[in-house]
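Why should sequence recovery work at all? Because a backbone constrains its sequence more than one might expect. Tight turns favour small or flexible residues, buried strands favour hydrophobic ones, and helices have their own preferences. The token representation captures these environments compactly. In the example below, the structure is given first.
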């Protein structure tokens, strides 16, 4: 079996970065939901409604906020790596388009479109 072509490798890099971005976006959304629940617990605790409220709610809230900030910090470098990978894939596609199979070319074009769409959504 032949090793993967440079075009296939560049395509896989873009696809992996897009999957990583989607995963971090999902994680961020979950963290925001947990923060909202923790904030509600803190408000209930402060109002004296301590029934079934964790006394460590403020600590949990602060920890969730820190985790969310750490997740947000990933996005700038991920965006930069995605931009670079898309650019490299475009160059590789231009270089290999006469040698590559139709499947590889189509996969590369799809990855480029998805990458550019994802980058537009971020800005």
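From this structural description, the recovered sequence reads:
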């Amino acid at each position: 079996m032949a090793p993967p072509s440079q075009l296939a490798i560049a395509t896989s890099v873009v696809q992996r970065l897009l999957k990583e971005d989607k995963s971090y976006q999902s994680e961020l959304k979950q963290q925001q939901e947990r923060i909202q629940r923790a904030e509600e617990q803190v408000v209930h605790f402060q109002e004296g409604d301590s029934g079934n409220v964790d006394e460590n709610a403020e600590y949990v809230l602060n920890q969730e906020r820190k985790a969310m900030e750490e997740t947000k910090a990933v996005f700038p470098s991920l965006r930069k790596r995605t931009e670079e990978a898309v650019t490299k894939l475009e160059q590789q596609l231009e270089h290999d388009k006469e040698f590559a199979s139709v499947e590889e070319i189509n996969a590369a074009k799809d990855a480029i479109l998805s990458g550019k769409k994802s980058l537009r959504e971020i800005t």
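A few observations help interpret the result. The mean pLDDT is 89.
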